[in-house]
Amino acid sequence: MDTVTVTTLVAGLLIVVGLAGVVIPVLPGLLLVVAGVAVWAVPRDDVVGWTVLGAAVAFAALGTVAKYLLPGRRLRASGVPWWSLGAGAVLGVVGFFVVPVLGLVLGFVLGVFLAEWRRLGSTDRAWPSTRQALSAVGWSIVIELGAGLLATAAWVVGLVVG
After folding, report:
1. Which of 14, 70, 83, 155 is the most exposed place for a label (fewest CB within 10 A)?
2. Which residues contact 155 (CB under 8 A, 6 or more apart)?
3. What is the reported pTM?
4. Is the pLDDT at 6 greater than 80, yes or no?
5. Which residue has the higher pLDDT, 137 or 21?
6. CA distance 28 to 77
7. How far is CA 76 from each of CA 69, 87, 148, rounded to the nearest angstrom?
8. How far apart are the first and last CA of the chain?
9. How far apart are CA 97 and CA 34, in angstroms?
10. Which residues touch 81 (CB under 8 Å, ≥6 apart)?
């Protein structure tokens, strides 16, 4: 195998692992996708490589900003207070270490539920806020995955063109 083929395979592997990391919140998904594109683009040192890398970075940056802004705006509009989200974040971090892979999401949802249960006084009234938080987590993953897929598509176009 020549160097170009090995570089392309390593880049592709990093991209696939990065896309999996978006769905499984253990790995820095978009960062690995961009790293994969960079592994392919930088040694090329041509217009196609740099253009593809620039597009991948732009998609990743926009996706990162959007994954925090859009779901957060929906949560605020639904009336979930910041301290409930903070409780979710704290239990999400704890859950990450207690239950590998799924603990982050489970801890976040449990934290929001417990905070809302305490604030509202009943489980029936806490569930709508918890569903909103779960929906926000889902949208965040969808947005990040979309950005990762767009960056991957830019790389595939670069492979075909260059």
Report:
1. 83
2. 11, 15, 36, 37, 40, 52, 56
3. 0.81
4. yes
5. 21
6. 29
7. 10, 15, 26
8. 19
9. 26
10. 119
